[in-house]
Amino acid sequence: MLEYTLVICDIDGTLVDAEKKISPFNKKMIKEFCRCGGRISFATGRIEKSAIPYYEELEMHIPIILYNGARIYHPDTKTAIYDSFLTTCDVDRAIDLLPQFPFDYVFYSNGEAYTLKRSDNVRRYEEGDRITCALIDSVDVIKEREITKILMIGDNSSFKEFRDLFSDDAATSARLVQSELTFLEILPSAVSKGSSLLHLADYLGIDMKRIACFGDGLNDMEMIRNAGLGVAMGNARQELKDAADIVAPSNTEDGVGKILAAIMEKKI
Fold first, then answer.
1. What tens digit of pLDDT does each residue of 19-69 get?
2. Do residues 108 and 148 make contact, with C-beta atoms less than 8 angstroms apart?
3. Is residue 98 located within the same domain as residue 164?
4. Does residue 1 lie in a domain region?
5. Taking a C-beta distance cutoff of 8 angstroms, is the pair 152, 184 a contact?
6. What is the pLDDT of residue 54?
7. Please, what's the b/e burial string for 120-145 (b: 16 or more CB within 10 A of its CB; e: otherwise)?
8. What angle do CA 65, 48, 40 make, to 5 degrees?
9. Residues 6+ apart with CB under 8 A from 108
């Protein structure tokens, strides 16, 4: 019997390599883990259309955590099991600060990504996530929608100033997370991969002690700490490694597959 029956895996920097592909060895070990009675799901900052191709490649049939925890979605039934949205005050404050910073904004609503201009930063993001953002002429379009999260892409030396100015407004309640070197995300209050992991475990009826989580970024911290087995990748930030139970080889060294093999061999 498997010690850990559910594996939650971040995608970028964890499951996939530098070319955004799942290696043959990782895929083989995931298939073997599932044949042994285990299940695998994702916890990612990606949206539905950029995560589902990996879901289909691995022939998964389980809800996945998207938008860094703001939504739990089941691709098979095309339904959201859990949703959280930014408040009007959070969205308005982000928009008010837009002219003061050289960031490119991406807004997410109802499974779609919207941007005001297709800059080089946005093009690189689209290529990495294999999606195309819808172009909008005005932020008024955004104000009319429920917003799941906002991504800002740009020079991270300005992130602290943005955080400070955003938080100076007492009406805001959002959580700001740096998910990648040049990505700063605005998420609904109290939302994280870790909080959504609790929702998913309850939905599936699985004890947290039987869950193993893999990640590489600071946005994986709560998830790693909440899991029965927290696994930081070899390429992870040091803070995450310090919080994890074990450190796996990097995402370019089949780290996920090697740890899954160890779990199946009862070495972990």
1. 999 999 999 999 999 999 999 999 999 999 999 999 999 999 999 999 999
2. yes
3. yes
4. no
5. yes
6. 98
7. ebbeebbeebebebeeeeebeebeee
8. 40
9. 47, 67, 114, 147, 148, 149, 150, 151
Question: Do residues 147 and 63 share a domain?
Answer: no
Within 8 A by CB and 6+ apart from 175, the residues are: 186, 187, 188, 189, 190, 191, 192
Choose one of 187, 213, 228: the last residue of a domain: 187
| 165 within domain boundaries | yes
Entry pTM: 0.95
Q: Is 54 within 8 Å of 31 (Cβ atoms)?
A: no
- 170 and 96 part of one domain: yes
Last residue within a domain, chosen from 164, 187, 210: 187
- Cβ(176)–Cβ(186) below 8 Å: yes
In the Cβ-directed half-sphere of 218, how many Cα atoms lie within 13 Å? 11
Give me the number of domains the chain comprises: 2
d(CA 163, CA 158): 9
